[in-house]
Amino acid sequence: DVKVTQSSRYLVKRTGEKVFLECVQDMDHENMFWYRQDPGLGLRLIYFSYDVKMKEKGDIPEGYSVSREKKERFSLILESASTNQTSMYLCASNRDSTDYGYTFGSGTRLTVV
Amino acid sequence: AQSVTQPDIHITVSEGASLELRCNYSYGATPYLFWYVQSPGQGLQLLLKYFSGDTLVQGIKGFEAEFKRSQSSFNLRKPSVHWSDAAEYFCAVGALTGGGNKLTFGTGTQLKVEL
């Protein structure tokens, strides 16, 4: 089975800190995604990447950036964390553009204080 | 742009009763449609998907969904709910974009099962 691993289950950071959320997949998938999940809002796409060093903005990219230097790793970066970025962050991957069978990680719950 | 509406935020059913979760989508072309389930503290798991062909699709855990183009709907059903089905359910529509594809999710329906 494909595994998508998010390095932290819970994180607490201070306002203004630079925050890195890491995601690793082990099945050579081309595409990787970062979603944010908030009650009543469902999942909203922040950024995705369809190849190494390639990225595309999702629906809510403001305040975030991403990095994909290696195929298996996709990092979400909060340049200056703010309290409104307190949320559950979910990483996902899929094989390629013909594959809609996303595999999700277990999520990182980030609290910004 | 595509969008998904799940009109029911919470649903409560008794164990053994039937279940239907509603999903309406908006998309300009033939949609790719999905249902995912999220148990507490977990990531999302794919229940079933519709790409084309038979409009009634079967998924895992005894779930099925029916695609109705005339109603822009893709409702999820289960004939007899088990207590372990209590979870949050998300409907999603898929689209090609840029070099890849992306899913747009609804806001979710929280299912509670009464014993």
Secondary structure layout plus pairing:
The complex is a heterodimer of chains A (about 110) and B (about 120).
Chain A: E1 4-6, E2 10-13, E3 19-25, E4 31-38, E5 42-51, E6 54-57, E7 64-70, E8 73-78, E9 87-94, E10 103-104, E11 108-112
Parallel strand pairs in A: 2-11
Antiparallel strand pairs in A: 1-3, 3-8, 4-5, 4-9, 5-6, 7-8, 9-10, 9-11
Chain B: E1 3-5, E2 10-14, E3 19-21, E4 24-26, E5 32-38, E6 44-50, E7 56-58, E8 64-68, E9 73-78, E10 87-97, E11 100-105, E12 109-114
Parallel strand pairs in B: 2-12
Antiparallel strand pairs in B: 1-4, 3-9, 5-6, 5-10, 7-8, 8-9, 10-11, 10-12
Name the structural class of chain A. mainly beta
The largest sheet of chain B is: 6 strands, mixed
Uncertain parts of chain B: none
**Globular, elongated, flat, extended or rod-shaped: what is the shape of chain B?**
globular
User: How many strands appear in the DSSP assignment of chain A?
Assistant: 11
The Cα radius of gyration of chain B reads: 14 Å
State the distance separating the first and last CA atoms of chain B.
Answer: 41 Å
Q: Termini of chain A, distance in Å?
A: 37 Å
Regarding quaternary structure, how should these chains be classified?
A: heterodimer
Q: What's the mean pLDDT score of chain A?
A: 93
Low-confidence stretches of chain A: none
- How many β strands of chain B by DSSP? 12
* Content of β-strand of chain B: over 45%
- Which two chains have the most extensive interface, and how many residues on each? A-B, 33 and 27 residues
- Rg of chain A, Å, rounded: 13 Å
Total helical elements of chain B: 0
Helical coverage of chain A, percent range: under 10%
Going by helix content, strand content and strand pairing, the class of chain B is mainly beta
Arithmetic mean of pLDDT of chain B = 92
How many helices of chain A? The count is 0
Largest sheet of chain A: 7 strands, mixed
